[in-house]
Amino acid sequence: MNFTQYLDTEYKELYPQPKKQLAGLDWQFYATVVHAIAAILLSSLRTGQLFYSAAMLSAAQLGLSGALEGVVAALDFVVAMFAIEGGLVIYSSIRSVARREVKSWIYSLLIGLLLVISVAAGLGQSMGLADVPPEFRANFMAGLSVVIGAGASVVAWLAGEVLGVQILRFQAANTDAGKAHARAMASWLSRGRKEWQVRRKELLMLPQPEPREVGQHNVEREQHKTLIGHYLQRIAAREKRVPGAAEIGRATGLPSNYVQKRLDEIKDGRP
After folding, report:
1. Given this model, what pLDDT does residue 271 score?
2. What does 42-104 look like in DSSP terms, one character per residue?
3. Do the Cβ atoms of 247 and 10 come closer than 8 Å?
4. 186, exposed or middle or buried, with CB in 10 Å at 0-12, 13-18, 19+?
5. Taking a C-beta distance cutoff of 8 angstroms, is the pair 81, 51 a contact?
6. Do 164 and 97 meet the contact criterion of CB atoms below 8 Å apart?
7. 255 Cβ partners below 8 Å, 6+ apart?
8. What distance in Å separates the CA atoms of residue 218 and residue 271, rounded to the nearest whole number?
């Protein structure tokens, strides 16, 4: 029995082979993805009207009209949304992965910008409940439109930066898991080789019966019965169990059906 056979039969049953533990995606990753998608949609809605109007003009110049003109314009709007706003998130993510970090000021800028937009939008909504001069409210809403319009694209960019770091964290966790699995496999194989060397020495050191005045076939059969008997005794003393014919065959290198016949002879006390 060679080392590979020992690993595949006995050793794996006693000591299961280590399995690689893949790192899972945590809540930060999913939250960042949801926020990035929301940033894409928000920025697209800010710029969507311009894209749609340009698409309608292009469709009219191509001689399209009616429902076909609307379909072409809508398709142009969707493609522009993914190409411009989606590309802003994707390529900022790629850049942050390449740099392997996101500066702390980016988080501060993102939080600050979101806070400004949220406060400004809240104030604009609250003006309807107060006696505010129409001119002031009109000017405020115009400024709010500029802040939200520009801020939406900046938020999409910053969301991509943060998303890239989350991807990098996931990759680093899986790399660490791969290294840990490699170390565990090396230790498992090293222990298996030591166990195999001990088992091989035990098999080689088993006493051989004295040849009797019988044919060579009977001498070999007696030797095999002695080998099987000593293996039974050793396993019973060491592991408190009785091995079957298949296990004994793997350990001794004898066919399992041949081992079963010898076990029957030992059990019945036949020569």
Report:
1. 58
2. HHHHHHHHHHHHHHHHHHHHTT--HHHHHHHHHHHHHHHIIIIIIHHHHHHHHHHHHHT---H
3. yes
4. exposed
5. yes
6. yes
7. 249
8. 9
Report which of 103, 41, 50, 93 is spatially closest to residue 73, judged by C-alpha positions.
50
pLDDT at 217 over 60: no
End-to-end CA distance of the chain: 27
pLDDT at residue 211 greater than cutoff 50: no
pLDDT, residue 32, reads 84
DSSP for residue 205: T
Eight-class DSSP state of 26: -
The residue that leads in pLDDT, 55 or 133, is 133
Element housing 145 (H / E)? helix 134-204
Which residue shows structure tokens 């076990």?
263
Half-sphere exposure of 38 (CA within 13 A, CB side): 8
Most confident of 60-74, 176-190, 212-226: 176-190
Give the chain's radius of gyration (CA, Å).
38
- Arithmetic mean of pLDDT over the chain: 76
3-state secondary structure of 123: helix
The predicted-structure confidence for 162-173, as pLDDT tens digits, reads as follows 888 888 888 888
Instruction: Report the pLDDT value the prediction gives residue 212, as an integer from 0 to 100.
Output: 46
- CA-to-CA distance for 120 and 239, rounded, in angstroms? 76
The encoded tokens of residue 109 equal 């800028």
Residue 213: the pLDDT is 45
